[in-house]
């Protein structure tokens, strides 16, 4: 059969339309991750001057570094920069765009497999939009979960988030040592489906976390003092700015 035969054209058309509807390796969930600057900086030895939850990233549940030739270019998100600096600051180096570049390469280029996120402007503006829509900072304050020298129980915090949003978050703590009698609140993840509806996050570690060195796990993979899912029975410290 020659390449131009009607049969082959037809199969190729069917295959390419199937590809458009359901691309292989497509992610099925987005994880919007917030981190608490005081906790992050206690691990990384930075000097936090921010006392609100900031964006860590918007991560698809599948894929990292999906397109290394798609370079971060901050002039494509120029209009977003004031909000980026406030809501998604690089806590290690506040005047740098290095964190955004890192997140774009690692996660944004994978998120971009969906048409709704297939540009840097779409990706970063959607992350900011979801962050503002959730408004986690106000919700925690409203339900009296505020930084404090007294400890919370884990279920106090979990209950507020779960009952307000109606989905299961994933809440991560720093465990200062194996048998510490306190854990430090560090990250709150809230998940979305590809249409940006809220969905439950997985309780177990996601594939993304197993494979992320550097920024996403500040102390390096496998070290006992990194972020991990909070224990149910250990008191939770939600540290104020020191
Ligand atoms: C925190 O410090 C950085 C760098 O010194 C500064 O650019 C930023 O505006 C400060 N943020 C707040 C909320 O004070
Ligand atoms: C990777 O990004 C480049 C630059 O934006 C683009 O031209 C190319 O089509 C992308 N490749 C894939 C596989 O998406
Ligand atoms: C970055 O984006 C701007 C605006 O779209 C464009 O003019 C410029 O050429 C891009 N820079 C690079 C290095 O691609």
TrEMBL record:
User: A Pfam family name for this chain?
Assistant: Ribonuclease_T2
User: Which SUPFAM superfamilies does the entry mention?
Assistant: Ribonuclease Rh-like
PROSITE patterns according to UniProt:
RNASE_T2_1, RNASE_T2_2
The record's subcellular locations are:
Endoplasmic reticulum lumen; Lysosome lumen; Secreted
GO MF terms held by the record: hydrolase activity; ribonuclease T2 activity; RNA binding
What are the positions of the active site?
56, 103, 107
User: Which GO terms of type biological process are on file?
Assistant: RNA catabolic process
Which keywords does this chain's UniProt record carry?
Answer: Disulfide bond, Endonuclease, Endoplasmic reticulum, Glycoprotein, Hydrolase, Lyase, Lysosome, Nuclease, Secreted, Signal
The GO cellular component terms are: endoplasmic reticulum lumen; extracellular region; lysosomal lumen
- Asked if the record carries the keyword Metal-binding, the reply is no
In which domain of life is the source organism classified? Answer: Eukaryota
Q: Where is the signal peptide?
A: 1-18
Q: Which reaction does it catalyse?
A: a guanylyl-uridine-RNA = a 3'-end 2',3'-cyclophospho-GMP-RNA + a 5'-end dephospho-uridine-RNA; an adenylyl-uridine-RNA = a 3'-end 2',3'-cyclophospho-AMP-RNA + a 5'-end dephospho-uridine-RNA
Q: Does the keyword Disulfide bond apply?
A: yes
Q: Into which family does the record put it? A: Belongs to the RNase T2 family.
Q: Would you tell me the protein name for this molecule?
A: Ribonuclease T2-like
Q: Which gene encodes it?
A: rnaset2
């Amino acid at each position: 059969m020659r390449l131009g035969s009607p049969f082959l054209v037809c199969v190729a058309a069917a295959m390419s339309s199937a590809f458009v509807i359901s691309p292989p390796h497509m992610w099925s969930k987005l994880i919007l991750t917030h981190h608490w600057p005081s906790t992050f900086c206690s691990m990384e030895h930075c000097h936090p001057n921010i006392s609100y939850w900031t964006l860590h990233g918007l991560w698809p549940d599948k894929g990292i570094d999906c397109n290394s030739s798609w370079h971060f270019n901050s002039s494509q998100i120029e209009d977003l920069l004031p909000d980026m600096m406030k809501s998604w600051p690089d806590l290690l180096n506040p005047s740098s765009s290095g964190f955004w570049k890192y997140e774009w390469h690692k996660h944004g280029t994978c998120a971009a497999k969906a048409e709704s996120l297939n540009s840097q402007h779409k990706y970063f503006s959607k992350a900011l939009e979801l962050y503002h829509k959730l408004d986690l900072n106000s919700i925690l304050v409203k339900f009296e979960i505020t930084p404090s020298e007294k400890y919370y129980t884990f279920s106090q915090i979990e209950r507020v988030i779960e009952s307000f949003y109606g989905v299961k978050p994933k809440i991560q703590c720093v465990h200062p040592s194996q048998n510490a009698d306190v854990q430090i609140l560090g990250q709150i993840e809230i998940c979305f489906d590809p249409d940006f509806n809220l969905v439950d996050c997985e309780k177990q570690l996601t594939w993304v976390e197993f494979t992320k060195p550097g920024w996403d796990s500040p102390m390096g993979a496998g070290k006992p003092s990194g972020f991990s899912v909070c224990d149910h029975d250990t008191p939770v410290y939600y540290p104020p700015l020191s």
